[in-house]
Write a structure and sequence with these properties.
Elements: H1 5-8, H2 21-33, E1 39-43, H3 50-61, E2 75-79, H4 86-96, E3 106-111, H5 118-129, E4 135-141, H6 149-152, E5 156-159, H7 165-178, H8 185-194, H9 199-209, H10 221-227, H11 233-245, H12 248-260, H13 265-279, H14 287-297, H15 302-311, H16 334-346, H17 369-377, H18 381-388, H19 393-401, E6 403-407, E7 410-415, H20 418-425, H21 427-439, E8 446-451, H22 458-466
Parallel strand pairs: 1-4, 1-5, 2-3, 3-4, 7-8
Antiparallel strand pairs: 6-7
Helix pairs in contact: 4-5, 7-8, 8-10, 11-12, 11-13, 13-14, 14-15
């Protein structure tokens, strides 16, 4: 049976550990000076080298050779996920009192240590407080937040960073060459991106795809994307462009084609996040889009949420108001007016008591029916914010966080954040607010920006925004 690549190319010395120089440098210096701690804690994401470093360190402490696979009588590995009980730790504590058989130190490597029970942690704590001089503990975990602070304070803590794509990709190309096939640079970059900073994950993906290539047929980015169920990068870019432009037909068409190609929603969201992140420097207004995309992952119906997020809610009126139909008045033929006097002469007066003439309603020529409808609805905060959204997502996001009040045709927008206040006072943003008010025939409203508190309760703020704004009342004062 062929040996998996992640096992075949496992680090065998501290010099071979990839992307963790901040850790290997300290450990190497400590070993050179003969400074050995009684306990080490290695934490970080999966596939970043924690177990490899633990095994290398265990052998280096005892000055034993290590080839990546061999074990030693005095180096004991324990999987805390399957040995999480207090009895397992008590047994370990009793055996730790026995001197090592051959080596200078007896080293215990406890992997996934966060899986230990509370009682097991208490038993381990006693040993860490008063460890035998011949015992070294190396603890490894992907979830350091589950470890008691009393454990962390008694060990040397080393955090493993996610490994950068710029480090992983060249190493993948080297390994592919050693394995007898060619890996394109773009393909290596894509595999590195999909590994999320884990070198072991990238080796597993390379191992899976290696059967599709040889020396004459390189492994290309297109082949990698197709076999990993990814969308084409150009398609993702078009989808984001369509969302920003509000091109609903294009959005639905692209999502339909991606669904037919078997690309799942989570993958689309991940790729959209990557594309939006790459544009963030030149397009800061995409911050709102990124936040909306993050929320999709946690939604119970991600497919529907993705579509509504990209399309937006521009066609939906706030507060459930049905859009008013525009009334188009038909001009009256002027020749008919000229015939009215002649017709009046021919009409005989009625013997009955004449009824009072009904005067036709007068219409202000400067106030069309559409403007009258908007005036009757009055100012609405939700309408204002939604009208701003397609023009400036940054200002839209900023206004959602602010408090407001409206009285005597003065709109007061307040925030306790100095940075947000300066953004609101910026001439470009202030002009946009005034322009939206003018477009809604509310140009007689003045806008005032001041420093003040935002809504204290975020839930109240959300409800207020959904109901179209308003003021928060203090019930205790009523």
């Amino acid at each position: 049976m062929r040996l998996a690549l992640y096992r075949k190319y496992r680090s065998r010395s501290l010099d071979e550990v990839l992307g963790q120089d901040h850790i290997t440098t300290i450990l190497r210096k400590s070993l050179e000076k003969g400074i050995i701690s009684h306990a080490y804690l290695l934490t970080g994401p999966r596939g970043t080298g924690k177990t490899s470093v633990a095994r290398i360190l265990a052998h280096e402490i005892n000055k034993l050779p290590y080839d990546g696979e061999n074990s030693h009588l005095d180096i004991i590995e324990i999987d805390a996920a399957s040995n999480s009980g207090v009895d397992n730790i008590r047994e370990l504590r009793d055996k730790a009192q026995i001197a090592p058989s051959v080596a200078k130190y007896k080293v215990y490597i406890i992997d996934e240590v966060h899986m230990l029970s509370k009682s097991a942690f208490n038993a381990l704590l006693k040993t860490l407080e008063e460890p035998p001089s011949h015992v070294v503990f190396i603890l490894a975990t992907t979830d350091v937040d589950k470890l008691p602070a009393t454990i962390i304070s008694r060990v040397q803590h080393y955090y493993f960073h996610p490994i950068g794509e710029a480090i992983i990709a060249p190493r993948l190309i080297e390994i592919a060459k050693l394995e007898g096939f060619t890996l394109d640079r773009d393909a290596a970059q894509l595999i590195a991106e999909q590994s999320k900073g884990g070198f072991r994950d990238s080796l597993s993906l390379l191992d899976q795809l290696s059967v599709l290539a040889n020396e004459k047929t390189p492994l290309t980015r297109e082949v990698v994307a197709q076999n990993l169920g990814l969308a084409n990068s150009e398609t993702i870019a078009r989808l984001l462009d369509a969302s920003v432009a509000g091109n609903h037909k294009e959005i639905i068409s692209i999502l339909g084609s991606l669904g037919s190609a078997g690309v799942d929603t989570r993958t689309i969201v991940d790729q959209l996040l990557g594309e939006a992140r790459s544009r963030l420097v030149n397009s800061p207004e995409l911050t709102g889009t990124i936040q909306n995309l993050i929320d999709i992952i946690k939604h119970p119906y991600p497919e529907l949420k993705l579509m509504t997020t990209l399309i937006g809610q521009k066609s939906v009126q706030p507060n459930g108001v049905t859009p008013q139909k525009r009334v188009i008045s038909t001009p009256v033929d002027s020749s008919a007016n000229e015939q009215i006097p002649e017709l009046a002469k021919k009409i005989k007066p009625s013997p009955q008591k004449p009824q009072q003439a009904i005067e036709p309603p007068t219409v202000d020529p400067e106030l069309p029916q559409e403007q009258a409808v908007k005036k009757s609805l009055g100012f609405n905060w939700k309408n204002l914010v939604e009208e701003i959204k397609p023009q400036s997502i940054m200002l839209y996001t900023l206004l959602q966080k602010c408090n407001h009040s409206f009285s005597d045709k003065i709109l007061t927008i307040s925030t306790n954040q100095e940075f947000d206040r300066k953004k609101l006072e910026d001439s470009k943003n202030h002009s946009l607010i005034m322009q939206v008010l003018k477009n809604s025939n509310l140009d007689d409203i003045d806008v005032v920006i001041k420093k003040g508190s935002t809504t204290a309760n975020p839930d109240v703020a959300n409800v207020m925004a959904m109901m179209g704004g308003g003021e928060e009342l203090n019930l205790e004062s009523i």
